Amino acid sequence: MNAELITYWGEHDSSLHKLLALAEQTLCIFDEDLSKLKLESAGNAELLRRLLAADERNSLRIVLKNAEPFRRSSPRLMKLLANYPLRMTVLECPEHLASLGDSLFIVDDRHALVRFNKDHARAKVITDNTEECMPYVHRFEEILKEGGEQVCATTLGL
To answer: Where do the domains of the chain lie, and which CATH numbers do they carry?
Structure first.
């Protein structure tokens, strides 16, 4: 299928939910803080849980520029992180990547929602096109290689 350009938040939200429902193996996310993706909603969190529970090889990898809202306001996602620690990772990227302004939501390396600016709904939706998703998959892998601080579901202490 072809890529589609979207410009409104309603289109963004419905495209994200549609792609999330298509997830069978992997989901890779690079975002400011997840707040605009609304993954904490009950319906989206359930779709994430199903993905992680379906197979021990399935994975959810998230890289955030600011992980504090995730830590503070995402109890459903934190529960998933606690229940599936080997299948779900959340990283806060290093400071030198904080200036990146886009957002990536990549499903099974063949579907993607690429928001061009973190503050705007303008985005590209790619459905069932591995070739067109490859540059974004490579970009996510490069971001992931930069490392960062891992977010844990439990607080370590004495």
So the answer is: 4-150 (3.30.870.10)
